[in-house]
Amino acid sequence: MFFEGAEKKLEIRLTSNMASLRQREYGFWSTLVACANAEILSTIRNPACDAYLLSESSLFVWDDKILLLTCGNSTLVEAAYHFIHAVGVEHIAALCYQRKNEYQAQLQSTHFADDIAKLRTLIPGKAFRVGHLDSHHHYLFCTDNLFCTDGQPMSSTYDTCLELMMYHIRGELADYLKLPTQTEQGIYQRLGLQRLFPDFQFDMHCFQPAGFSLNGIRGADYVTLHITPSIGPGDNSYVSFETNLDLAVYPYPLVAQMIKLFMPSSWDLIRFNQPLMTAGFPEHVCLAHGSIVTEHGCQIDFNHYQQLQTEELLPVFL
């Protein structure tokens, strides 16, 4: 059985004259995620953010912004199209749409070029790729420098984000994730989340026959973790971790801790206005890196790492 773990990501910020997105009814959000071929499983809330755990990843809603992540064979661009029509393109202050290369792209209903062609019928923007085509790579589409209602350019200094994508996980935790006896609490305890995020409210779900998703919120801060263990021939295991925490001041080395827990053969870091912090990484080599500054002034950095330890590969019989 194969499941595409790689996420598609949509982030949209509205202009300042719009009513809070959190005032919209539950039906609006269930319809939105249905456009991406997903459904809402559960919800947690605090005074600053609503977090929806989905059948395919996560949705976070703030007063003026949404973040929607979907995996599998989802059609995230349809959700983007629906949202823009619902709120009006004139109220979109900034939009970023992102896709990672898939393990089995032929199973997807669209490709990045198709998605961007559809988005560009509604809103202007620039598309680019980071990473080599013959290795891990990511596609991004960011809107041009749109203006808020006060005539000033939209500032991205408020937004920070770090995405960690881990491939071919190993070790005790990876073995546990393949067991039919795994539980949500078992995974939660092995991840040490109570220690790493002591003030966060969590929502989590175990999928059958394998897979795990988690959302965590604290005020406007969020973390989200999605695990796709390898459950078929070959090693297609994939884990993603994302947060908007300022890691330069956070008391725990979150990225290093995640790499220590999952022991991936390789991993990618994409940082949006975030510093590079590699303390605590295992012995590794940085195979590639690059950066770009968007018209909104957002600094996007990409790094692709590989452990120095040689990985033994076995043939996969098809």
Describe the structure in your own words.
It is a single chain. 18% of the residues lie in helices and 35% in strands. The protein contains seven helices and 16 strands. It has helices at 26-35, 76-87, 112-119, 171-176, 184-191, 193-196, 254-262; strands at 8-14, 40-45, 50-54, 57-61, 65-70, 92-100, 125-130, 138-143, 161-167, 201-206, 212-218, 221-228, 238-243, 266-272, 284-293, 299-307. The protein has an eight-stranded antiparallel β-sheet, covered by helices on one side. An eight-stranded antiparallel β-sheet has the order 10-11-12-13-9-14-16-15, with helices on one face. A hairpin with a 2-residue loop joins strand 11 (212-218) and strand 12 (221-228). It is globular, with a radius of gyration of 19 Å. Residues 147-157 have low confidence and may be disordered.
What value does the Rg take, in angstroms? 19 Å
Task: Tell the overall outline.
Answer: globular
- Proportion of β residues? 25-35%
Q: What structural category arises from helix and sheet content?
A: alpha+beta
**Arithmetic mean pLDDT:** 90
Sheet with the most strands, sense and barrel status: 8 strands, antiparallel
Q: Summarize the amount of helix as a percent range.
A: 10-25%
Individual helix count: 7
Q: Could you give the distance between the termini?
A: 13 Å
What is the tally of beta strands? Answer: 16
- Order of SSEs: EHEEEEHEHEEEHHHEEEEHEEE
Query: What ranges have pLDDT less than 50 throughout 5 or more consecutive residues?
Result: 147-157
- For the biggest β-sheet, the strand order reads 2-3-4-5-1-6-8-7
